[in-house]
Design a protein that fits this description.
Layout lengths: L23 E2 L4 H11 L3 E5 L6 E6 H8 L6 H6 L4 H5 L14 E2 L4 H11 L3 E5 L5 E6 L4 H5 L8 H7 L14 E2 L4 H11 L3 E6 L2 E7 H9 L2 H4 L7 H4 L14 E2 L4 H9 L5 E6 L2 E7 H16 L2
Parallel strand pairs: 1-2, 4-5, 7-8, 10-11
Antiparallel strand pairs: 2-3, 5-6, 8-9, 11-12
Length: 305
């Protein structure tokens, strides 16, 4: 890691990171944490000491998928609460938080953040000081600011080079989708088994929506999940059809779109990835992580240099 003493230097992480971070104490319930994440459209939230703001852990939308989708955190539902979803989500957030948090130090740089996000395959990094006091957070999405923000000179040669790049050269061509009539539980298992945060939803081979880690978290945080309960047993939720949970509104990208236009479109939504179409056929997925790789590969000398 590099140390930067001049906070005005263009490499400074706080040039793109969020300083005033919303966090919750470890005694907050799972459902209340999900409500806060839903309210602010967060994909992750740090867990801190109430008095000192010292970082204890982090919870992401993927942790909610893990809990509801039969991952390692599902043991909380199955074993501790014998399938009782209401009792589970009213337990403390420390039950499902990730304790070994990958962080940046406050003097690290933008390039440190990019390298760590890519290397670790994660979507966000809390920023701490030497005492583990939370100072900020930086996410993959923050890097979109580099392409669409006003502070960057897009006439620079590095950015002209990016403007010629097509998303088809960076998108994931491995498309795993879920049928609208498939069960919610099996769809979540697909997400977990493949390490995906989003799945396109089809009906009669036509793209009709998406199931994302964020939409799963909103299903819990909004309280809609409880409208589907009769007995309170988790199996009622697991056996729901995906069409009851998916996002009906979705955006797509055209296969011939360039990277900067894709970044501009992504900046107008809270979606972390869009299906890529060739005509009416879905041929890939382009995500914020793919965009970060493009920026890192082609503009780092200018942005971070």
């Amino acid at each position: 890691m590099k140390n930067m003493n001049n906070v005005n230097n263009k490499k400074d992480i706080f040039r793109i990171a969020t300083k005033n971070v919303v966090s919750v104490p470890i005694t907050t319930s799972i459902i209340d944490t999900a409500k806060i994440m839903e309210r602010y459209s967060f994909r992750r939230i740090p867990i801190t000491d109430a008095g000192t703001n010292r970082l204890n852990g982090i919870v992401t939308t993927v942790d909610i998928v893990n809990l509801l989708g039969g991952g390692s955190k599902y043991n909380l539902i199955k074993n501790k609460y014998q399938g009782n979803l209401l009792a589970t989500v009213n337990s403390e957030i420390k039950e499902i938080m990730e304790k070994n948090v990958i962080c940046l130090m406050e003097n690290d740089t933008i390039i440190d953040a990019a390298e760590m996000l890519i290397k670790k395959g994660i979507g966000g990094l809390p920023i701490i000081d030497k005492k583990k006091i939370l100072k900020g957070i930086v996410t993959e999405r923050d890097f979109i600011k580099i392409l669409v923000g006003n502070s960057i000179n897009t006439d620079n040669n590095h950015f002209r080079e990016i403007s010629y790049k097509k998303i088809k050269d960076y998108m994931s061509k491995k498309v795993i989708y879920v049928d609208a009539n498939e069960t919610f539980g099996l769809a979540l298992r697909k997400m977990l088994d493949n390490g995906f945060r989003r799945l396109p939803v089809i009906k009669d081979n036509v793209l009709i929506g998406s199931l994302t880690a964020t939409s799963v978290m909103r299903f819990l945080g909004s309280g809609k999940i409880f409208n589907k309960l009769v007995t309170g047993d988790f199996d009622e939720i697991y056996n729901l059809e995906v069409k009851n949970v998916m996002l009906n509104e979705f955006n797509t990208l055209d296969i011939d779109m360039n990277v900067i236009d894709a970044a501009k479109k992504m900046s107008t939504t809270n979606s972390g990835g869009f299906p890529v179409l060739n005509g009416d056929r879905m041929v890939g997925i382009f995500t914020e992580r793919d965009l970060l790789r493009v920026i890192y590969d082609h503009a780092r000398d200018y942005i971070y240099g």
